[in-house]
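Lab channel / #folding
Pinned by the channel admin:
"Please post every new chain as: sequence first, then the structure tokens as a reply. Keep commentary short and put observations after the output so the thread stays searchable."

First post following the new format, from NK:
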Amino acid sequence: MRLLSVNVSQPIAVEIGEQRYHTGIYKSAVAGRLWLGRAQLAGDGQADMENHGGPNRAVYCYPHEHYAYWSSQLGRGDFEYGQFGENLTTQGLLENKVCVGDAFRVGEAIIQITQPRVPCYKLANKLGIPNFAKTFLRANRPGFYARVLEEGGVGAGDVILPEQKDPVGMTVAEVNAALYLDKGDRPAVERALQIEALSPGWRRSFEKLLARA
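Reply from TO:
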């Protein structure tokens, strides 16, 4: 497992048709090492702190293996690191293998997976594909957010090593499916709620889903 790229951006103003907003999704790769702190990666910024950033979503990771999939699906060959708004482009951390609650050493830092990524219209606009958020969600290749358990420097080429396996053992893909793709799977929802490392936002969503069941 390896870190292929570290990507950051500051929020910019975007105007597409009648939509006007600020976003930090336009990440680009940086050379050298950056400090990964408890709240965010040095040099990075978020425009929407309700849905991005903070200690439970300090860094967003996306598997580079999916680049080939999306390139084929969309008929495009122009993807660059940070294409999906991720801070860390990884190799070997696939959503159907790693679990929410798992912890990994990345360079000098230790991160813990807290939740899958929820796509929105900003990703669709970045790619220039209307309704891409729904396509992205159905593919169940969301990447994941992580909290920082131990701060430290990270850089492209760093080896990623397992530090801790979550006892529940529910993969990122399974957690994502339980909330968005198969809402009738009550046992999966109950299992997800057993994950101590699960982000508060996702925990509330599962609790509401369970209450309505």
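NK: Helices lie at 65-74, 121-127, 132-139, 172-181, 186-192, 200-212.
TO: also worth noting, The mean pLDDT is 94.
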